[in-house]
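Lab meeting, action items carried over

1. Structure of the two-component assembly. Owner: GW. Status: complete.
Input record:
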Amino acid sequence: MSTAKSSSVKPSEEIENVVIRLAGDSGDGMQLTGNQFTAVSALAGNDLATLPDFPAEIRAPAGTMAGVSAFQVHISSEDISHPGDKADVLVAMNPAALRSELSKVHSDATLIINTDEFGERELEKAGYDSNPLDDDSLEGYYVIDVPMTSLTVTAVKELGAKRRDAERSKNFFALGLLCWMYSRNPDDVKDWIDERFASDDLIRRSNVTAFDVGHAFGETTEQISITHVVESADHPPGTYRNVNGNTALAWGMIAATQLSGLQSFLGSYPITPASDILHELSKHPAAAFRTFQAEDEIAAVTSAIGASFAGDLAWTTTSGPGMALKGEAMGLAVSLELPLVIVNIQRGGPSTGLPTKTEQSDLFQAMYGRHGESPMPVIAARRPADCFECAIEAAQVALRYRTPVILLSDGYLGNSSEPWRIPDVDDLPDLSVEFATESNHENPDGSMDFWPYLRDEATLARPWAIPGTPGLEHRIGGIEKQDGTGDISYDAVNHQLMTDLRAEKIARIADDLPPPEYTGDLDAEVLLVGWGSTWGTIASAVERLRKEGILVAHLHLRYINPLPKEVGEILRSHRSVIVPELNMGQLSRMLRAEFLVDAQPLNKVAGLPFTVGEIEAAVRKAVHGDDGGSK
Amino acid sequence: MTTTETTTTAVDIPTTKRADWQSDQEVRWCPGCGDYSILSAMQFALPEMGIRREDTVVVGGIGCAARFPYYMNTYGIHGIHGRAPAIATGVALANPDLSVFVVGGDGDLLSIGGNHLLHALRRNINMTILLVNNRIYGLTKGQYSPTSEQGKVTKSSPRGSEDSPLLPLSIALGADATFVARTHDMDRQHMMEVFKRAHAHPGAAFVEVLQNCNVFNNHAYESITAKANREGMIIPLRQGEPIRFGPDDSLGVVLDPRHGAVVVNTADVSEDELLVHNEARDHPSVAFALSRLSPNMDEPTPMGVFRAVDRPVYGRNPVETEPPGRQLISDLLHSGTTWEVD
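Predicted assembly:
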C-alpha cells in the first residue's frame, strides 16, 4: 500500500474493520477531524459509514457534558452499511468527552486521552469527583495518555502562533496520530489542509505541523506497539467519491432539473438539519436552480407552489416543525394538482425536540398530517448516496402525476457519509414534460376550451398549462373544483368524485413501481420490515444472523405511499413480522391497519440509529422466544 | 427603454377591451359591494397597460376580495389565507416576464398574511398588490379586522374592539415599499390611474383601495368618499405641487416638527410653507407623515401616489433559465476528490 511510505518501524497488523469515535468540545473541531479521517479512509479504498453526533448549541459552555460533540466512523475492508454499534477506539479531548462517551465504546476499547485537559477545573466541569486516569475506573480499557495540547502548542508556537491559536490545532494532532495508527496516507490530509486553509498561511502551517507532531508521536511512543491496516474493500469497478445524504439529495435535485429540462425553484427556510441542502443548491445558478430563502416555512412552500404554477420544477426542504407549518399549503398543492417535492430531513420531536439528532417520527405526519382527504406519495431514502436517486424519483413522480410528493430523509442520513460509486449519467431517467399548448375540450357548438382538470386516462394527471401560453388562461384554487372544467363547485356528488379521483391517482402510482427490495431467507419464519435510514442496520443484522444460521428475511419499503402491490402477500407469508423504527410504531400500525397482520413494533427514540445488536436481539427473541442468551 | 422598443411593444400587444379581461364565471359578491367597482376599474385599466392576457397572473388569498382571480380572464390562483404575496413571489421569480397582481383584503394581507406582505415589499418583488380595505371581516360575516377602529362593536367584539388599528400605508412605508398609493372604490377614474401607475412601477407596488362592505361595515368611508364630501375630505396628491385641497384650495398640508404632517388653513400660512408633494423622495419619512393623516378615516385623507422610488427589483442575481443538461450532472458528481476502483 502507498501508506508504507510513513516508514513506520513498528509492526503492522491487518484488521477487517474498526470503529473510531472522536469526542471533544463543540469548538474542538471534532466533526472536521472525523470527516477528514473519513475522507482519507475512503481514498484508501475502505468501505465506511459515519455517525456525526453533536449538540444543537453552536458553542455550549466549554468543558461541560452539554458541549460534547462526537463523530463516529466505521471503516472496513468489507461492505458495511452502519456506523458500528460500539467504538473500538475513543479519542477524548477532555474529561467531559470521556465521561459522556465511555458508554458508547467496548469495555476493552482503546482510549486516546488528551491528558493536558484533565486538570482539577476540567474534571469538576465534567462532574468527576476524582481523576479517572488516576483511579481504577478505566480498568479493562487500553489507555493511551497523550499530552495533546502541550505537544501541539510547543510545536506550533515556534511558527509564531499565539498560544490560544496554537491550541486550536490540537485536533490535527489527533488526526495525525489516528492516521499513523491506521496507516492512512499523510499526504492526502496535508493536501486537503493546504487547500482548506489556503487563505491563512499561519493557520495552514500550524495545522500541518500539529498533524506531523501527532503522526510522529505515534511512531515514537512506547504506548503503541503496532499499527493497523484496514485493506481496501472489494468495491465494484468505477469512479468513487465520498458523499453525505444532504449533499447527495441536493445533487439529486440538480440532476432532476437537468433531466427534466425545467428551471428549478427551491423555497426554503433555514432549519436544522436541512439547511445544508439550501446552502448547496444556492451555489449552482448555472444549473438553472433558483433558491429563495423565504421569510418562513409557509412562504417557502407557497412560493414553490407559485413557481410550479408558472412552470418551474418546484421544491421545498425542511424538517419536522417546518412540515407542520407547511401543512395547509400541502393541502392546497393536493387540490391544485401541481408538481412539487417536499423534503423532510426528520429530527427528534415533538416541538424543537432534538434538532441535531435523528428520528423517523414524522411518518404519520407525512401520511396523514393534513386537513381533509389529501393523499400524497411518500418516498423514503435508505442510505446517504440513495438520497440522490430518491430526489430524482420524487421529481419523476411529481411531474408524471402532477402531485406534491413527500421525500423523507433524516438527520442521520443527512449528515453521515459513505463512499459512492458515481452513477453513469446516461443511465439516469428522462424526466422531460410537455406543457399544454392547446385547448383540450370541444363544446357542443364546435368551439374549443381549455379545461384544466381534464385528466390523462392512464395516470389521471391533469394538464400543466403555464402562464405565457396564449388561449389557455385558467384559474385554479383551493375551493373544490368541478371535474373537468376546474370551475368552483360545491356539488356533493362532484366532491365525492374529485376525492375519489385524487385518491385513485395516487393509488395508481403503484402500477409503475418495481417490486420492493425483499432479501434474505424468503421462507424464514421471521421477517424484518424497515423503511428509511434503518436499512443499513437491519441489513447488517440480517447478514450476521444468517451467518449464524438463523433464518430471517428483510423487506425494505422505499415507497410508503402507495405501498408496492406485493407487500400484503409478503407480510402474510411470514409467521413473525418485526418492524424496527426510530419512532413509537408508525409503519407497524400502518401495516396492521392495511393488511390485518400481526406486525410487531421494535421502537427506539433515543436520537440515535439502532445498533445492529438491538435488531439481532429482537430476531433472536422471535426465533427462540427469548433474547437467545448472550451469544 | 429606447423609443424604438416602446413602439415595437405597442404594436405587438393586441388591442383589448374590458370584456376581454372578464372571465365566464358568475361574480358572486353581495349586491352593492365595492369590490364590483374595483374589479371593473381593473378590467377597464388593463387594456391600457400594454400587456397580454396570457402574460398576466392574478393571485388571491382568502376573503371576499381574494376571489378576484376567478373573475379575470387571465391566469390565476386562488390560494390560501394570507399567502397570496408568497405564492405570487414564486410566480414572479419563476417567470420575470409576467405581470403579477395580488388582490386581498385587510384581514388577508395584514393579519394572517402580514408577514408575507412585509417581505414581498421589502424585497421589491415585481408585483402589484391591491389591499382592499373595508375594515371588517366580510366572508366570515362581520368580525373586527386589523384595520377596524378601536371600540368597534362587532360579533366578536360586543364590548368594542380593544385592538389598535394598523394603517396599511404606514406598514408598507415601514417595510420600505418602493411604490405606495391609495385610491377608493367610489372613483373609477382615480382607481384606473393608480392601478396603471402601480403596474408600470418596476418592483413591488402597494395600493390601498378603500372599499365599502355594505353588508357588514356600511358607510365606513362615506364621510370621505361620498361625492358631496370629497372636496373637503380628500387630499389629492399631485407630483410637484404644493398640497392643497378643499373649497377654493382653502386647506393645505404643512410639515410640523412635532406632529408630522398637519392640515392647515392656507390663509394662515405662506405659500412656501405648504408641503410640495414629491413621491420620489428617497427617504420615506415625509410619505410616512402623510400616511398618518386621518388615522381613523374621519379626517381629510390623502389620495394618490405617496411614494414612487427606484430600487433594484428582486431576482437580479442571474440564474440560468434552461438547465444545461446531463453533462452538468456528470461534472458536479466528479467535482472534488474522487478515486478509481479497477
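2. GW to write a short summary for the group page. Key points so far: The domain at 14-220+312-333 of chain B is CATH 3.40.50.970 (Rossmann fold). Chain B has eleven helices and twelve strands.
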